[in-house]
Amino acid sequence: MIHFTVASDGDMRGDLAARAEISARLGIDSSWATVDQVHGAEVRYVDRPGSAGPADGLFTDRRRLPVAIFTADCFPVVLVASGGIGIAHAGWRGTVAGVVSSLRGAMAAAGLEPVHAKIGPGIHACCFEVGPEVSARFPEHLSETTWGSPSVDLLGALQDQLADLPVVVEGSCTYCGDNTFSYRRDVTTRRMGAIAWIP
Ligand SMILES: [Zn+2]
Asked: What is the whole-number distance in angstroms between the Cα of residue 176 and the centre of ligand 1?
């Protein structure tokens, strides 16, 4: 199961009461397995709640253990396998570093080959204005913001990395959408949660 929270659900990274509330609504334990997100490509296997340390992806084969990442413009990417589920935090740095393929490879090596994927809300090409140092990393995904400056289609880059899997995209652009946290727009520490679990 996969759930992406919205801003009105509260700050899923910093507010444990908000986590408890959404967990009750979803019928899951309020103790989630997480990682200390660092915009890299490290991935951890987890079998218990709490932080598994510095990484940007985590996966489990344990039933009813929620795995979660926190975003405000970066994309949550969920990989679903038979008997396993994994989730990655993919901003432009993590996407360049290959966090999604890193997660997929780690899951496959554990016998949990992903069979489909879901990508949640993040900053879309309409608003992801970038300088030359970022656009140079995405030569095949250059785009333009709605105000006419250079941008990168990070969502398209992630979809291409998963081109051989069925991928569902859910949620709007975090920058111009309603009820989303956007680090770029608000310079906020608040984060939405992407939560995945095996029922
Ligand atoms: Zn937008």
From this structure: 4
